Predict the structure of DinB-like domain-containing protein.
Amino acid sequence: MNFTMEEAIEVLERTPEMLVSFLSELSYGWLTCNEGDGTWNASEVIDHLIEGEKNNWIPRLEIILEEGEAVPFPPFNRYAHINEQNTLPIKEKLLQFQSIRMKNLAKLKTLMDSYAHLELTGTHPAFGKVKARELISTWVVHDLTHVAQITRVMAERYRDDVGPWKEYLGVLKQVNK
Amino acid sequence: MNFTMEEAIEVLERTPEMLVSFLSELSYGWLTCNEGDGTWNASEVIDHLIEGEKNNWIPRLEIILEEGEAVPFPPFNRYAHINEQNTLPIKEKLLQFQSIRMKNLAKLKTLMDSYAHLELTGTHPAFGKVKARELISTWVVHDLTHVAQITRVMAERYRDDVGPWKEYLGVLKQVNK
């Protein structure tokens, strides 16, 4: 096991600022390009991250702490943000993400005030029994997977522009998963 | 063709600041984890980006502008930074990258002062004829591919920690390319 609460928080608290540096005031072309029908652009990925802060990580952790395995997590709708059509400019979306993330990290520290809490278990609707520390680890890797997604989506826009170099660029060999 | 000089520069100028936000003061564990023997950790990726600023992008562009197709680019050693063993702390490496990138972008704007320059051609040692705009597009996608790599390497560290969620996390399904 590599997980520690301190190191997990290190990544979780850096993601919003990193995305601000990466995406703020980028051109429309970069923010709206995607990998084809039904795939997300960078701006929609931020909507999804906000949705996770509202309805996934902390709410599920609270269910683990309050209900244990007795009450399964409500399913998280990974497409909720698409239906909601958040039309805010990217900079405001990023600040919204940053604000809710910081509140959630403060809450995380309050909720998980003993090592024993990390081993508490809940019931995932698809996987069954899961541990609090698995949920928090997943929160971290979920950030990383979506940063990777944004870079892949943006790289795709220049697939033809790089000419023969595409052979050397790993990010152009990954598929939408 | 999606490439424009303005939009390419948007990404190139954001990468250093994004990496500062992402990696500065991260724990040793995050900065030194890799994907196994012969693979790079986050800190080594920064060394490679610095190496590219010194010996790849602008030097090759200068060869295109000065020599055209007559003189092939010298091969770029993708492993040079591994032999050099840069032992600076990550924050200093990131500032070094930021500083040389900003100088190179200033140079790029001076060198490429007409649209006609984008269509100029040079000789790549493996690919043969390449255009200046393909080289600059590749510079952009090269940034993106290495940000994707860092997220993948860090995610790998928590592969077992996420428990059953690994099924949902695309970044854990990508292989080292």
Chain B is about 60% helix and 5% strand. Strands of chain B lie at 121-124, 128-131.
